[in-house]
Write a structure and sequence with these properties.
This protein has 246 residues and is an alpha+beta fold. It is built from four helices and 14 strands. The chain starts with a helix and ends with a strand.
Length: 246
């Protein structure tokens, strides 16, 4: 669904009076869909497994502990959007694994919990072997362009909606996504009573759900939300990412 179709739908709904407000808060989003039967190729987008980095790269660590590979996004595979996304290159994301044998574990909201490596050119790539033999399953992913509106009342600034309109708003918002994993848009969660976005200069980069197949469990089955400063995204600088879970 594109922005025009969405606004036409809103105009016919019980919250049509707020069409202009919703126009102002619309954001592009990209659903991430698991493609479990697809063959994994060097440089392809995927969740889990091991990353494709430049030849000779060392596995990233926090302190003396190795990060766990979360997934990689090949931006050339993403449909064009109005966002400030690269049109090429690979972003590999790593998470500070709370392994019981590690002497230092980061909390999900602490700086350094998420580590990003952006490679602008897909040359001299090789799959880097994880120092942890229990790497889990790798699943190819594909993308679908969507749009998004704020997730809850904590993200709705100066909300015009009445209490009796909240159920329809939530139903409409949920209908915009085909997946609980997505890029951009607004962060979503199961348990938080606040907006997890770190500040006005930050935007949602990736929201992903817990997943048994990938052995992901964020805060007892919640979602992991990753954020980036808008200016850094424009400059393709993924060196400082923040996160939360709930």
């Amino acid at each position: 669904m594109n922005g025009k179709n969405f606004l036409d739908m809103i105009a016919q709904s019980d919250i049509g009076i707020h069409k202009e407000y919703l126009r102002q808060v619309l954001r592009p989003a990209i659903d991430v869909l698991k493609h479990k039967d697809a063959e994994l190729q060097l440089g392809c987008s995927r969740f889990g497994g091991e990353p494709d980095l430049q030849v000779g790269s060392e596995w990233p660590t926090y302190g003396t502990n190795p990060y766990r590979f979360l997934g990689q996004i090949n931006f050339a595979e993403i449909p064009s959007t109005e966002a400030n996304f690269p049109t090429k290159g690979i972003l590999s994301l790593f998470v500070a694994d709370d392994h019981p044998d590690y002497d230092c574990n980061l909390e999900v909201f602490e700086e350094g919990y998420i580590h990003g490596i952006y490679i602008p050119e897909l040359t001299n790539l090789e799959t880097i072997i994880s120092p942890n033999p229990d790497i889990g399953r790798a699943i190819a992913i594909k993308f679908s362009s969507r749009i998004d509106i704020p997730f809850d009342e904590y993200q709705l600034k100066d909300s015009p909606f009445m209490e009796n309109q909240s159920d329809q708003y939530t139903e409409i918002r949920d209908s915009l996504h085909k997946s609980t994993d997505y890029l951009l848009g607004y962060p979503s969660h199961y348990t938080l009573a606040y907006d997890p976005t770190p500040g006005e200069e930050w935007v949602s980069l990736l929201t992903i759900d817990s997943d048994d197949d990938l052995e992901w469990c964020w805060h007892d089955g919640d979602k992991l939300m990753i954020f980036i400063e808008l200016e850094r995204l424009k400059n393709l600088d993924f060196s400082r990412l923040r996160s939360d879970a709930g």
